[in-house]
């Protein structure tokens, strides 16, 4: 994601001090934060634990400079089983193009023989989660998951590149939508949020979500 964005936009890494690497209970969490000129904020997380048996990576692209959805990528490898998740959340001022959604949906449909990564429980964000999001997992499918990840990201970033920059009022509206999303994520959370909170405390969890990820603090 970082390499792809750097081709088209100016990228500046932020210094977040000691928060860049935190360790507790055998878990190491590394956080990298970037400001993308004319776009918004990119936050990348790398978590490892239990002698490599657990490995997780996350990239959150919080866009306020252009009218595209919030975009989240997760890669997980736990005890040899891998999962890739792409989620887009409807924080649009105008509808996201149906043609782009169809292209993204085809990637998930192509991998329909892979097990779907999902939870039976309802989530607060389900109502704004685009149906073209991708949730697949399996064993010994690294190459397939990487290829799908590459294609999905390419389509999203290509659309981002060809979307005009927001004017001042549109940017304020986008910021308000992202702030509402971040505040609800912090308040209602989810499995990943609760894990960060339990390991590194509530203060860091708030800073991670509202500052490093969504730049709304």
Q: Report the major sheet.
A: 9 strands, antiparallel
Q: What average pLDDT do the residues reach? A: 93
Rg over alpha carbons: 17 Å
Q: What's the number of extended β-strand segments?
A: 9
What structural class do the secondary elements suggest? alpha+beta
Principal-axis shape: globular
Unreliable spans: none
Continuous helix count: 6
Gap between N and C termini, in Å? 24 Å
Helix residue percentage? 25-40%
Taken in chain order, the helices and strands follow as HEEEEEEEHEEHHHH
Write the layout of secondary structure elements.
Elements: H1 2-6, E1 11-13, E2 21-24, E3 27-36, E4 40-49, E5 54-63, E6 70-78, E7 81-89, H2 98-110, E8 115-116, E9 134-139, H3 142-161, H4 168-188, H5 191-200, H6 202-213
Antiparallel strand pairs: 1-3, 2-3, 3-4, 4-5, 5-6, 6-7, 7-9, 8-9
Main features:
single chain, alpha+beta, 9-stranded antiparallel sheet, 9 strands, 29% strand
Task: Write structural notes for this entry.
With 217 residues, this protein is α+β, with helices and mostly antiparallel strands. Helix content is 37%, strand content 29%. Strands 1, 2, 3, 4, 5, 6, 7, 8 and 9 form a 9-stranded antiparallel β-sheet that branches. Helix 2 packs antiparallel against helix 3 and helix 4 runs antiparallel to helix 6. The radius of gyration is 17 Å and the shape is globular. It starts with a helix and ends with a helix. The mean pLDDT is 93.
Brief sketch in words of this structure:
The chain has 6 helices and 9 strands. The protein has 217 residues and is an alpha+beta fold.
């Amino acid at each position: 994601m970082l390499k792809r964005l750097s081709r088209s936009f100016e990228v500046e890494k932020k210094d977040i001090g000691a928060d860049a690497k935190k360790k507790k209970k055998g878990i190491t969490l590394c956080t990298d934060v970037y400001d993308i000129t004319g776009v918004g904020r990119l936050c990348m997380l790398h978590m490892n634990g239990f002698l490599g048996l657990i490995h997780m990576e996350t990239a959150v692209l919080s866009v306020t400079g252009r009218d595209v959805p919030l975009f989240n990528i997760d890669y997980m490898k736990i005890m040899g089983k891998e999962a890739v998740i792409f989620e887009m959340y409807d924080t649009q001022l105008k509808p996201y193009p149906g043609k782009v959604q169809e292209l993204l949906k085809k990637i998930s449909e192509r991998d329909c023989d892979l097990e779907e990564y999902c939870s039976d429980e309802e989530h607060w964000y389900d109502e704004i989660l685009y149906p073209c999001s991708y949730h697949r997992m399996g064993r010994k499918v690294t190459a397939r998951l990487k290829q799908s990840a590459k294609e999905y990201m390419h389509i999203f970033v290509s659309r981002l590149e060809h979307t005009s920059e927001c004017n001042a009022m549109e940017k304020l509206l986008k910021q308000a939508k992202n702030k509402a999303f971040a505040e609800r994520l912090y308040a209602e959370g989810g499995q990943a949020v609760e894990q960060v909170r339990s390991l590194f405390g509530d203060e860091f969890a708030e800073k991670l979500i509202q500052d490093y990820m969504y730049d709304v603090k």
